[in-house]
Amino acid sequence: xxxxxxxxxxxxxxxxxxxxxxxxxxxxxxxxxxxxxxxxxxxxxxxxxxxxxxxxxxxxxxxxxxxxxxxxxxxxxxxxxxxxxxxxxxxxxxxxxxxxxxxxxxxxxxxxxxxxxxxxxxxxxxxxxxxxxxxxxxxxxxxxxxxxxxxxxxxxxxxxxxxxxxxxxxxxxxxxxxxxxxxxxxxxxxxxxxxxxxx
Length: 199
What we know:
10 helices; 66% helix; elongated
C-alpha cells in the first residue's frame, strides 16, 4: 500500500516538475507547481530532500527567494483573477511581484488602477511598482521584516507541524515503530537538556 502511494506521488511529482521544465517563463504555472510540491511534501517523500529550499537549489538551481517569488506571484494572479471588474491579469512575475507585499484586497485595488491608467493598455512592472508605492507607501518591504520567535506560540506551532508530519507515516510502514522510537528518544534528550538549563 505504501509503495502504491509513493508510486502515485512520484508520478504526480514528475507531472508537476515537467510543468516547471516546460514553463520556466510561465511564472503562474511554475508558482502553482512549486507551491503544490512544497505543500504536499513531494520533495521529501519522493526525492528525500530535507527541505523545500534544498530541493529548489539542487533540482532547479533556484534560490529560496526566487522560488517564493514564483509562489507569491501565482497567489497574486489568483487574487486578481477573483475580481470580477478586472479582465487583465499580470503576465509576468515582475508585474506581480510588487503586489505580493499587499493584502489581497489591496492587490486588487492596485491592479484595477494599473489596468485603468496603463497607456494604450500596456502594463509594465515599473508602472505596477509605481502605483503600488503611491497607493500603499507603508506596505511591508520584501525581506526587510525580521522574524523574531514568539514564545511560547512558536514552540506549540512547530510541535503541531512535527505531529502532522508524523501522521503521514502509513500504518503498514514496517519502519513506523522505529521512527516513533527515534522521535521519543529525541524528545527525551530535549527534555533532559531543558531541565538542565532550568536547574
